[in-house]
Amino acid sequence: MKHIIIITAFIFSTYHVLAQVENVQEKFDLPTALHESSGAIFFNDKLILHNDSGNENKLYELDTISGLVTRTVTITNATNVDWEDIAQDDSSIYIGDIGNNSGNRTDLKIYTINKSDYLSADAVTAEITNFSYSDQDDFTATPNATAWDAEALIALDTNNLILFTKNWVNGTTKAYAIPKNSGTFSVDALTTTLTSGGLITGATYNPLTQKVYLVGYNTVLQPFVWVSEKFTDSDVFSGTNTQTLLSSLGFMQAEAITYIEADRYFITSETFSIGPISNNAKLVSFTTNDNVLSITDQTTSSVKLYPNPVKDVLFIDGVDVASVEIYDTKSVLVYQGNDENINVSALSKGFYLVKMYSKDGMYTTKKIIKK
Description:
Layout: E1 22-29, E2 37-43, E3 46-51, E4 58-62, E5 69-75, E6 83-88, E7 92-97, E8 109-114, H1 115-120, E9 123-124, E10 127-133, E11 149-155, E12 160-166, E13 172-173, E14 175-179, E15 183-187, E16 194-195, E17 199-206, E18 211-217, E19 223-229, E20 240-245, E21 254-261, E22 264-269, E23 272-274, E24 277-279, E25 282-287, E26 304-306, E27 313-317, E28 321-327, E29 333-337, E30 341-343, E31 350-358, E32 363-370
Parallel strand pairs: 5-9, 10-15
Antiparallel strand pairs: 1-25, 2-3, 3-4, 4-5, 6-7, 7-8, 8-10, 11-12, 12-14, 13-16, 17-18, 18-19, 19-20, 21-22, 22-25, 23-24, 26-27, 27-30, 28-29, 28-31, 31-32
C-alpha cells in the first residue's frame, strides 16, 4: 500500500498475553529498490521480497548480512496491480495480487511459480488462479474504507492457500481458503474470525511449529504480531490467538513477515511519511520460545520414520526395504541406498521427501524435517 491514511480511532477487544516474541531488533534500512516491500519468504537460504502496487513484476533476493539485492527474478506473464504477500510450500512460490484498497477489484489473482523454475532462471512463467469473495456483493469504490482489502497469504496444507483480509471498516479479519490449482474460483470465508486490533498486512505459516504469525499495525502505526495456534483443520482462528505489540519499534508500517527457523522471524516495513512522522523501509528480526514439533504422520501406511524431525540417523520401520530415495524441495535426489538406518547428519536443515520401495514391488513416500 503506497499511502497511509490515519483512520478514525476505535477500540477493539484484543487478547493480550505475556509475549513469546523476544529480541526484536532493527537490522538495517532496506535498499531503495525495496522501499515499498510488501511480501517476504525465506527460501534456499535467501530472503525473497517483492514490492506492492504499481511496481515491477519482480522478486528480489536480499542478502540479510550486507542488505544488498543480489538477484531479481521477473514473472513474465504477471502484472503487479497490487502484490501484497508471498507464500511457499515444498514445491511452489505463491504471489498474492490481492491488494484492494478501494474494494472494487474484480481481477484478484494468485501467481504460482515452480521452485525449480525459480532456481534455474531469472525470468519465469506463472500459473494463474483467479478468485472472488463469495460473500461480496457490493463493488462500490470506497478507498481505505472497505472490508475487502487483503495483504496476507499463507500456504497451510496440500490443497489450499489461506488469505486474510485487511478490514478497514471494523478490524474484523476473515480468513478465506483459495485452491492452489489454476482456474477461477469463488471462495468462502472460514468459520472463525479475528478481532485484530488494527490492519493485518502480512502472514507466515511455520510448519516446524504449526503456528501462523500475522503482522500489522494499529490506528497510531504501532506494529504488532498475532500468533494463531492449536486450531482445527484450516480454521486458523479457531484455536488460541495472542497478540504482542512491538512497542520498541515506535511508528512503523509493518508489511510482511516470514519464518526463518522454528524460533526466528523477519519482518519488513515500508517507507512512509505522514506530516512530521516518517520512517524508512526496514528489516526487523525477532525470536520466539517455540520448539520444533514432532510430526504426526497423516497417512494410513504402517511405515514409520523416526525420529521426525531428525538430526542424525533416520530409522525406517514397517517395511521390508528394497531401496530408499530422499529428495529435497528442489526435487534433487540427495540420498539413494537400501539401509533401514540412514545417516542424514550431512543434509541441510529443511524438508525432504523419503521414497521407500519394498521387496514386493510397492512403494510409499513420507515427509521428514531435518533439524
